Amino acid sequence: MTGFSITITPRFYETDALGHINNASITAWFEVARVSYLESLGDKDPSAAKDWILASLQLDFLAETLYGADVIADIIDARVGNSSLTVICAMSQEGRVTVRGTAVLVHMDHESKSSKRIPDELRQRISSHRP
Q1: What whole-number distance in Å separates Cα of residue 105 and Cα of residue 83?
Q2: Taking the chain, what is the end-to-end CA distance rounded to the nearest angstrom?
Q3: Residue 86: enclosing H or E segment and its boundaries?
Q4: Integer angstrom CA distances of residue 109 from 52, 73, 83, 106
Q5: Tens-place pLDDT, residues 20-59
Q6: Contacts of 65 (CB under 8 A, 6+ apart)
């Protein structure tokens, strides 16, 4: 597989007083990339993303992300645990990586409010769809 990516066009209201993209917007973009990646795994239920909760998020701001040029969000790795999925994303603008982030998602049973093992079929889809 060649990897998974989406293009994000920054909007003016996502900037701060210095013209940088606000860190809260970057966090939201990372969520959009993660959910799009999960949807790309081919689950026929469009609400399948709700089975995942965010347990941990780390973002490293490597360079300025600015208004006026598209941002490419690439899922560069996805690692499957027993009930967790670690998703690593890099965001670049004009060929330069500006943000790198790691999110740990937990597959949840919302009725019991506890984690549940990732089904084998989904594990296989993640492995075959791994960047």
Answers
A1: 8
A2: 6
A3: strand 84-93
A4: 9, 29, 10, 10
A5: 999 999 999 999 999 999 888 876 565 667 889 999 999 9
A6: 10, 20, 21, 26, 71, 91, 93, 98, 99
